[in-house]
UniProtKB/TrEMBL annotation:
Superkingdom of the source species: Eukaryota
Naturally occurring in which organism (per UniProt): Botryosphaeria dothidea
Annotated region (Disordered), positions in chain: 1-31, 84-104
Protein known as: Response regulatory domain-containing protein
Segments of skewed composition (Polar residues): 1-15
SUPFAM superfamilies: CheY-like (SSF52172)
Phylogenetic placement of the source organism: Eukaryota, Fungi, Dikarya, Ascomycota, Pezizomycotina
Length: 185
């Protein structure tokens, strides 16, 4: 293939016609903050996933609060030794099988966004806070609850993203690392 038909390299693609380099967007997940979005509306899921991914967050999507709680139990938010649901009992054979199985990768979830349109959103938040009261999770997770009072999806998504970015800044700031935050959007 001659040089006229070759694809540009990354250095050439990053430079403009004037020779200045363009600033690239951060890769998804590059800031190390994981966001769990719980929403029954698929359009809201897609919009939030796209916007939060573009901002550099790792986004996990669930449709129900029960799925969201399952995600939390598989995440770094939850104690590594905890298995199954809260209060579940396992037999000796099940424990042996779980010990023999290779460890599953842990999900990084730092912020939880719950839509008020989920019928059990309040129960989900109560369950998470109940786990914290019992000492189950490793740390506190801020929860954003979308009240759904805005009629335009774009405005609602923009507010959610602004709140998530603010919480992410607080999580990354060493002075406010341990501060508890609750926000109602």
């Amino acid at each position: 293939m001659d040089s006229a038909h070759q694809l540009p390299t990354t250095e050439a693609a990053a430079s403009t016609t004037t020779g200045q380099t363009q600033r690239r967007r951060p890769r998804p997940g590059s800031n190390g903050i994981g966001v769990l979005v719980i929403d029954v509306n698929q359009i809201n899921q897609i919009v939030l996933h796209k916007i939060l991914s573009r901002c550099g967050f790792t986004v996990y999507i669930t449709s129900t609060c029960n799925e969201g709680l399952d995600y939390l139990q598989q995440s770094t938010f939850y104690f590594p030794h905890s298995k199954g649901t809260v209060g579940s009992r396992t037999s000796a054979a099940e424990e042996k099988n779980q010990q023999d199985a290779p460890p599953q990768p842990r999900l990084q979830i730092d912020i939880i966004v719950i839509s008020a349109h989920c019928t059990d959103s309040l129960a989900c938040v109560r369950t998470i806070r109940g786990w914290e009261g019992e000492g189950e999770p490793v740390r506190h997770a801020p929860v954003l609850v979308d009240s759904g009072v805005l009629s335009f999806r774009a405005a609602s998504a923009a507010r959610i993203v602004a709140c998530v970015e603010e919480l992410a800044e607080r999580l990354l700031d060493p002075e406010t690392k341990g501060a508890h935050s609750e926000t109602v959007v």
